[in-house]
Amino acid sequence: MKLDATDLRYITSDEFRVLTAVEMGSKNHEVVPIVLIVQISGLRSGGVNKILGSLAKRSLIAKVQNSKYDGYRLTYGGYDYLAMRALSKRDSMYSVGNQIGVGKESGTAITPLIVDASPDTLHQDIYIVADSEGKEMVLKLHRLGRISFRAIKEKRDYMGKRKSASWMYMSRLAAQKEWAFMKVLHEHHFPVPRPIDQARHTILMEFIDAYPLRQVAELPSPGRLYSTLMDLIVRFAHAGLIHGDFNEFNILIRRESGEPVVIDFPQMVSTSHVNAEYYFNRDVECIRTFFRRRFNYESKLYPRFKNTLKEGGGRDEDAFRLDVVVAASGFKKTEQKTLEEASCWAHYP
Ligand code: ADP
Ligand code: MG
Q1: What is the pLDDT of residue 217?
Q2: Ligand 1 contact via 171 beta carbon (within 6 Å)
Q3: What share of the chain has pLDDT > 70, as a percent?
Q4: How far apart, in Å, are the Cα atoms of 136 and each of 208, 245, 286?
Q5: Domain count, the chain
Q6: Is 255 among the domain residues?
Q7: Is 170 touching ligand 1 by the criterion CB < 6 Å?
Q8: Is residue 44 part of a domain?
Q9: What pLDDT is recorded for position 152?
Q10: Range of the domain at 319
Q11: Residue 260's domain is classified under what CATH number?
Q12: Cα(62) to centroid of ligand 2, in Å?
């Protein structure tokens, strides 16, 4: 799907009101009845109907004929739109399109930067966007729940009537989680992109001039990068964290310096998580396996979970437990749990 930047600027305020009304109504209705949209928007019903038609034509909303009533639902395109508009209203993101070197033929639409092919991760959309000075940034749109919508429906008994079953809510939660971790990690000088802004299901971050480790065919000294990466896993653990998806797709290698930058945090877990050891070992194994296969490099040295935790015990833990800092920063344990459950269904629908 392409995001269209021209629309960002040329939507009328009434159109925006109606779109927002559909979004608000979506929180409690799978299909938002037209009467409710009229009511929330506070506009005349004739006008609303016309606007609904034009928003549907631009695929920001979709008409759904229900057995009981006709209504509309917000599309992912509409949700993307609202998020991008919020970012541009706050001047975090000025425009997308002509300013940057992608999507030239179309002029206004931007094309996805990367399609992550890792089969066991959920696919997210990554776009290059720019601020008012033309400085490039990365916009990541989380897409959680749509794919697993049926799975979530089947679990409805289990979920009860919680609104958390909604794809909008779930993808926003994923973005908020990633944002919380990126911020805390960046503040503590971990090699991660600088977080810039967050809105709805999106994150705006620094663009790293790099390529994924996955694309690196040869290294002058694989042992050096190997130890840097293992040290990083240890540093995470000493700060109470496990990346959880530490693999060649989520490690970027800077074009200039060859230094690694770690990305993609929605699955990060605390070292106090019940399965912490399993996640820790999996991260370590990912790196060992990749280095063995790709660079024919093997080392007897690799971190063990228990030793790593013991070593970490020396310093003032409370000041340094980033998992605790994140929890305190507003990303609650219960939300974390909801997200874990949902990702699980999304992986195995
Ligand atoms: P996903 O959840 O789809 O795996 P990622 O956050 O891992 O999303 O990003 C997917 C790809 O997009 C990465 O492998 C990387 O190539 C590119 N990418 C993501 N963030 C950045 C960034 N800040 N700078 C440059 N490239 C990025
Ligand atoms: Mg990834």
Answers
A1: 93
A2: no
A3: 77
A4: 9, 26, 31
A5: 1
A6: yes
A7: no
A8: no
A9: 45
A10: 210-347
A11: 1.10.510.10
A12: 30
